[in-house]
Each structure stands twice: as C-alpha cells, then as structure tokens.
Amino acid sequence: MRYIKKSSSTWIFVTVLVIMLLGIISGIRPCSVISGSMEPNLPTWSLCFIDTRISYDEIQTGDIVVYNRRSDDMRIIHRVIEIEPEGMITKGDANSVSDGLSVGRDNLYGKSLFHIPYLGYLGRFAQKPIVKISIIICLLALLITDLVAGRKTGNIEKSKHTVEE
Q1: Domain count, the chain
Q2: Domain harbouring 41, CATH code
Q3: Which run of H or of E encompasses 164?
Q4: 55 and 35 Cβ atoms separated by less than 8 Å
Q5: pTM over 0.90
Q6: Which residue numbers are catalytic?
Q7: What percent of the chain clears pLDDT 90, i.e. is strictly above it?
C-alpha cells in the first residue's frame, strides 16, 4: 500500500470543506452580534453559533434566540423573557424595555448554542459575496497548485528511476 503525502494547503481545503458540510448538515449557522443590546453576556462582535433546526416548541424562557424582525427582516438576537400563546416576548439583556411580542412560529430563525468573542468581525466580513467568492477561488487555486506540483514531482521521480535502471 502506498502512502500519499498531502501538502498543508490540501489539508486546509479539505478542513474548510468538511466544516462547511457539517454546518449545512447540522443546521448550525454563524451569526455576528453587531450591537451592544446583549452585553455583557454576548459582547458586541461576538460570533454566535445558531441551531436553525430547533423547533419553536422547544424554546424556553431564558433562551437566547435569533428571529427575523417583521418590519425589516433584520435578524435580531435577544433573550426570551416570556412565552404567551400568541408568541414570545424578547428583550436584549442591556435594554430597559422588551421588544414586545416579537417571535412567532413564522419568524424564528434559531437558538444560540454558544459564542466566541470578537470573531464576529470575521463573520460579518465573510458574509459579503465577494469575500466568499474570493475565499473559494483562493482555496481552489491552492488545491490546483498542489495537484500540479505533485504531478511534476511524481514525473521527476519516475524519470530518476528510469535513468537509474
């Protein structure tokens, strides 16, 4: 059996691909916190990981949820402070007043699982389509470069063995 040596850029490409696939399969999505309404529990520019497959009925008082605001479809991350038959009342931890009846079955995006402080800067930057395309192009270029370099190395080694025989 032959051992195939892979370069670091191939491993980077495979790792990024696996992480992306796991996110798609599991329903976990990143979400950047861009305001201080959840301070100090969720610092501004934290990167939250959201379970988008959670059922509306699984949400409990005290959970931090992400929902699409009905007025402008902007995603908001706030804590559920009360659950009523008509929907959930949310409030930012640092806010003095609640959002009112803001979350229903129709606009719940998900529940916050955990966050990483300050990584939200990267998450927000990476949401831009041009950045996503650039990252994909760079990763593909690294992979192609590795494959081409590997073939050249293989051809050189084959020619050495041919000359020696």
Answers
A1: 1
A2: 2.10.109.10
A3: helix 129-164
A4: no
A5: no
A6: 37, 78, 99
A7: 53
